[in-house]
Write a structure and sequence with these properties.
2 domains; 7-stranded mixed β-sheet; single chain; alpha/beta; ribose-5-phosphate isomerase; Ribose5P_isomerase_typA_subgr; binds ribulose-5-phosphate; Rossmann fold; NagB/RpiA_transferase-like
Length: about 240
């Protein structure tokens, strides 16, 4: 099976968690897009849900698939968010933001009673950090913010180079919120909580791709089938080694 087929399998399993009347956060990326498409099929078959998209790209997908959308500015709490991830560790800590939607994804996940992450098994890692950590920053004062990020990474034992994310035509990639992204190639992140706190303390940093204590479950699709991993205590139950 291809990675894309595995992503669709994970998305299909997540659909089983959706109930009539739910307000559902719609993640961003190729795995989340499968979920939106499958949700659209269920809506056409009579399911009633209100979707809250985490990006303009997902909004367009949801509209194309006929998923009814709510007003994010009027929603206080969501029942469930289903989203993809770039890396997932055994404590269900995540790196997200490969698609550049980390800020809205985190806002929506934080306001959700449950966050289910859907992924093919290649996203499961023992230690976070092989995937470059996205750090969303305001363009204003970028040199000073960059220096503060360098210092934060060093203090947290995660020193590594970072680069401004660019579009194919060489311009700075601009997020839906009008910010830029620094992608930090750290190799491994031994202390994600410490690094998250240090980055959060930098005024020019809007958000970062470390999603800690947010995912309540992960649906991993692999060659051996689907694994539903739930986070009950510190370490997830049913986790891979
Ligand atoms: O965080 C994200 C977007 O900001 C995505 O969920 C993450 O990049 C995974 O993407 P994909 O499902 O395409 O592998």
């Amino acid at each position: 099976m291809t990675a894309d087929e595995l992503k669709r399998l994970a998305a299909a399993r997540a659909l089983e968690e959706v109930r009539d009347g739910m307000i559902v956060g719609l993640g961003t990326g190729s795995t989340a897009r499968h979920f939106v498409e499958l949700l659209g099929e269920r809506v056409r078959a009579g399911l009633s849900v209100t979707g809250i998209p985490t990006s303009e790209a997902t909004r367009a997908d949801a509209e194309r698939c006929g998923v009814p959308l709510g007003d994010v500015d009027a929603v206080v709490r969501l029942d469930l968010t289903v989203d993809g991830a770039d890396e997932i560790d055994p404590e269900l800590r995540l790196i997200k933001g490969g698609g550049g939607a980390l800020l809205r994804e985190k806002v929506i996940a934080s306001a959700s009673n449950r966050m289910i992450v859907i992924a093919d098994e290649s996203k499961w890692v023992k230690t976070l950090g092989a995937f470059a950590l996205p750090i969303e920053v305001v363009p204003f004062g970028i040199a000073a913010t960059g220096a503060a990020v360098t210092q934060a990474l060093r203090v947290c034992g995660a020193a590594g180079p970072f680069a401004l994310r660019q579009t194919r035509d060489g311009h700075a990639f601009v997020t839906d919120g009008g910010h830029w992204i620094l992608d930090a190639r750290l190799g491994r992140i031994d202390h994600p909580e410490r690094l998250a706190a240090s980055l959060n303390a930098i005024p020019g940093v809007v958000e970062h791709g470390l999603f800690l204590d947010l995912a309540t479950a992960v649906i991993l699709a692999g060659a051996d089938g689907i694994r539903f991993v739930e986070r009950r205590g510190r370490r997830a139950e049913g986790a891979l080694a």
